[in-house]
Amino acid sequence: MVDATVAAEDVADLKTGLQAEVTPSGATEVVYGTVTEVGLVAETNSSGAAVFPVTVEITGKQQDLYAGTSADVSIIVKQTAGVLTVPSRALTTEDGATYVTRIVDGDQVRTEVETGRVCGLSTEVLSGLAEGDVVEIPGFSRPTGGGDGGEMQFPGGGQPPGGGQPPGGMGGAPS
Asked: Any bridge partners for residue 22, and if so which?
């Protein structure tokens, strides 16, 4: 069993039965579990913020997970198949339209996109990009001779919005 906390703004998305991924500190493999309890009474974390207790029952193999070990917990609140996402930093908005800068044959091509849901640092792209397109992310410099530096390729499907760690993150320690 893992006892974790979730930020107040994220607790409304949680319910018992949701799948959780638990990564014990120092481990590289994920252990799977299921949310068995979501507390209704807020607690205060070390920063003074309101958090709610969550209990995750481990259902997968438990190697590297011991009483007193800290762990990162990601609770999957929604999964969507076939979603293309880009880092939100790759998007710019001007005159009501949203754009990315695609890299085509080494040239920058400003491309209008239609966006969907935003989850954490990723934004769903509904149209304007295709699987395998390469986009530039502002703040990263593009190398002049090979490599992928500031370019990022997104295979179709990517990480679905809501499929990873919800905003605010969740952390916990097993008990």
From this structure: 31, 73
